[in-house]
Amino acid sequence: MAESTGWTEQDTPDQTGKVIIVTGGNSGIGYETVRILAQRGAHVILAVRNAIKGDEAIKQIRTENPSANVETQPLDLADLSSIKEFADTFNERGIPLHTLINNAGIMAVPKGTTVDGFELQFGVNHLGHFALTGLLIDNLAAQNNGRVVNVASNAHRQGRLNFYDLQSTHRYGRMRAYAQSKLANLVFTAELDRRLRRAGNADTLSVAAHPGMAHSNISSNLKSESLFDRLIENSLKALGPYFVQSTLAGAVPTLRAATDPAAASGDYYGPNQRMQTRGLAVKVQAKKAAYDVHDGRALWERSIELTGVDFSSLT
């Protein structure tokens, strides 16, 4: 059950002194997340694949907030070497990391692979963020109330972790692969929470959020592949004003997950209206499979095997 009341962006508390990394922070929901966090005084690092677009985002933020403490650092979540370089560069700066927001994602792209040969959506949406989190977790754990925020999707409800074919080698469907990757985000969130607690780290939070149906560039690759797809697409266009909320509203669940002083590890935030498609940001529940202990352990072990990032401080 979702709460009946919840947050807007105005409820985001002061973040002065906080250092926050936002992947994919140059556009869409990530951009609005960065913009509000910078308004609240955070030092925000946009982890972006395209430096030019990242610089354009910073320029836009500073037109309304000249004192915004924002910067870019290159990161390609489809390349494990880029992820390691990002983490090494950040850690070598010797500054604390208070919050990591794993926001970047791709949706319903044609079948493809990452630099390291992983199925593209599973590789970017889950494995890339798993590796990044593992390489930054010691810095986060050293801070008071450090947080990992994984941005998932209501599409996880259609997802299933197929451990016999996680890479969709034998059967690929754009939305099937996307839904699996979003379920993986939530299974990872729950398993990270369990391992933090077992390691005695009660101060570091593993939380998640989803934007509902919000205007975002993540669906730019979604193509109509059949008559049924086109009917769904046309229906969504007609119903859009009733279900689709603004990009800013879509960012609020992430903002709450990242900044709510009352958040607890394992919490999941999303909109409170119309089947969680829009509305105020409240605490919600993922489907039961997201909390499955056996799937959590299996996904964790498989992700370590694939990425080589072992979260040694949590074992």
Could you characterize what this model shows?
- By secondary structure, the chain is α/β, with parallel strands linked by helices.
- It has one domain (9-305): Rossmann fold.
- It contains eight helices and eight strands, in the order βαβαβαβαβαβααββα.
- It has an eight-stranded mixed β-sheet, sandwiched between helices.
- Strand 2 (43-48), helix 2 (51-64) and strand 3 (69-74) form a beta-alpha-beta unit.
- The longest helix is centred in the middle third of the chain and has 25 residues, at 174-198.
- It is globular and about 50 Å long.
- 50% of the residues are buried.
What's the architecture in CATH terms?
A: 3-Layer(aba) Sandwich
Q: Which class in CATH terms?
A: Alpha Beta
The number of domains is: 1
What is the averaged pLDDT score?
91
- N-to-C SSE string, H for helix and E for strand: EHEHEHEHEHEHHEEH
How far is the N terminus from the C terminus?
33 Å
Number of E-state strands: 8
- Our estimate of the beta-strand percent is 5-15%
**CATH homologous superfamily caption:** NAD(P)-binding Rossmann-like Domain
Sequence stretches where pLDDT stays below 50 over 5 or more residues: 219-224
- Contiguous helical run count: 8
Radius of gyration: 18 Å
Sketch the major β-sheet. 8 strands, mixed
Strand order of the largest sheet: 3-2-1-4-5-6-7-8
The outline comes out as globular
Question: Helical proportion?
Answer: 40-55%
- Topology-level CATH name: Rossmann fold
Alpha-beta classification = alpha/beta
